[in-house]
Design a protein that fits this description.
Elements: E1 7-14, H1 20-33, H2 38-59, E2 67-74, E3 78-84, H3 111-118, E4 121-125, E5 130-136
Antiparallel strand pairs: 1-2, 2-3, 3-5, 4-5
């Protein structure tokens, strides 16, 4: 019987939006390697970029002394991504619903909604400073 081997990849970035392209490169390569279909690749890529942007911009307030950490756990049947920031956290239920009429024209506020729509599982831990997302093959 074949043994299920997990691969763990860590990426730790100083909190500057200029480095988001590194996150994009890593996740794009991982998804291709894992042979996710094109639609799943687009969904996961969008969710990871949104989560990374939230960690850097909203969590760490682009303070380069603070770090956003990304852990990619690769299994045969799924990809689990854990994003951690050093910010104060947030309560998910207090974040405005972007589909409410008063929020439709706002230029921001869709990140969590997009993450939840694109991934199979999204869990907020440690007061929102840790976000775990899962995509199954």
């Amino acid at each position: 019987m074949a043994e299920n081997k997990q691969l763990r990849i860590f990426l730790s970035l100083p909190s500057t939006m200029q480095l988001i392209y590194l996150l994009d490169t890593v996740i794009s390569d991982l998804l291709r390697e894992m042979k996710f279909n094109e639609e799943a690749q687009e969904h996961v890529n969008l969710a990871v970029i949104e989560a990374g942007t939230n960690a850097i911009k909203h969590g760490n307030k682009e303070d380069t002394d603070k770090t956003a950490t990304f852990e990619f756990l690769i299994d045969d049947d799924r990809l689990t991504i854990t994003i951690t920031d050093e910010g104060p956290g947030f309560e998910r239920e207090e974040v405005a619903n972007p589909l409410e009429p008063e929020n439709l024209l706002k230029s921001s506020g869709r990140g969590l909604f997009l993450m939840e729509a694109c991934m199979d599982e999204v869990v907020y831990e440690a007061g929102g400073t840790i976000v775990k997302m899962v995509k199954y093959k």
